[in-house]
């Protein structure tokens, strides 16, 4: 009689802990609805509907925020739209989930070159070479992009002289 309340409390705690562990999924297991939305988004992106594809990928991430392929696809969509900064950010999210993802590293390096950050892209290439025991297609693709260099518009913008800040004149004026 004296141990009944303690035994009941202990059994209730044990029952609660064991049922909580059964309802969780493994980290590597993605929600099937999220995976299906990524597939739909891929079809929309191939058809040229970038806005619809972006909506599908973002919906997939709302269902399962651990969906790394959705982050990579969002980055590829942003890159196709000429938004390398957004693409780099999406690839970074994918790399936060899996730091050794070769596709995310290569695509992020490609976006960095597109933005003009060739040295950062070379760092990604070094990571890829460190992860691959032999040559891998991601490394070869990124090396080719780095060798080609940034687009001419980025080179011209980097070479242009700095404009004066708002409110400043180009030439200092003498007081009269």
From TrEMBL:
Q: Does the keyword RNA-binding apply?
A: no
Q: Where in the sequence is the signal peptide annotated?
A: 1-25
Amino-acid biosynthesis keyword on record: no
Repeat (TPR) positions are 34-67, 68-101
Note the InterPro entries from the entry: TPR-like_helical_dom_sf, TPR_rpt
UniProtKB keywords: Signal, TPR repeat
Q: Which domain of life is it from?
A: Bacteria
Q: Return the protein name.
A: Uncharacterized protein
- Species of the source: Sphingomonas sanxanigenens
Taxonomically, what lineage is the organism? Bacteria, Pseudomonadati, Pseudomonadota, Alphaproteobacteria, Sphingomonadales
């Amino acid at each position: 009689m004296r141990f009944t309340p303690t035994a009941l409390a202990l059994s209730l705690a044990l029952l609660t802990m064991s049922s909580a562990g059964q309802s969780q999924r493994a980290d590597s297991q993605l929600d099937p609805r999220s995976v299906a939305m990524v597939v739909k988004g891929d079809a929309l992106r191939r058809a040229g509907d970038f806005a619809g594809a972006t909506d599908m990928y973002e919906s997939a991430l709302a269902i399962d925020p651990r969906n790394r392929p959705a982050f990579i696809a969002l980055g590829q969509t942003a890159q196709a739209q000429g938004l390398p900064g957004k693409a780099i950010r999406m690839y970074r999210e994918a790399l936060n989930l899996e730091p050794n993802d070769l596709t995310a590293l290569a695509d992020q390096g490609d976006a960095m070159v597109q933005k003009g950050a060739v040295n950062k892209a070379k760092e990604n290439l070094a990571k890829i070479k460190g992860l691959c025991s032999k040559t891998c297609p991601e490394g070869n693709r990124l090396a080719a992009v780095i060798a080609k260099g940034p687009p001419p518009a980025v080179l011209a913008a980097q070479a242009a002289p700095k404009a004066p800040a708002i409110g400043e004149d180009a030439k200092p004026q003498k007081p009269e």
